[in-house]
Here is the input.
Amino acid sequence: MAGGIIMREAHFPGRAPIDAYGNGGFRFAEMSHRGSILCVPSGIHGWEPADAAALAEADFARVIEEAAGIEILLVGTGRELKPLPNAVREAVRAAGVATEPMSTGAAVRTYNVLLAEDRAVAAALVAVS
Here is the structure.
């Protein structure tokens, strides 16, 4: 039998409010995650992007796959609001989802409110230090 550590994609299978953010990660559902996260109907997933200035269409593939369950995508772009690249905005819009870029802190607060209202919200949150 081969030994070693099996690395699995970070995934929480459910919708949960974000309890805290900062120090390069997030806390939710009595767990913590270091790095950026993507909150979609299938759950909360670890998300690769660490810099909002380098966001690409491929970073939003899961959002587009799950678009039927999403009305609005909040994009937390770090400490400050940064505009989304046109290609990203257009690809997500073509899937029927509106995008709202804002600072990560504002996106976390807005996500929690809309989640509590049982709205069809998703969030792509770039971690902040």
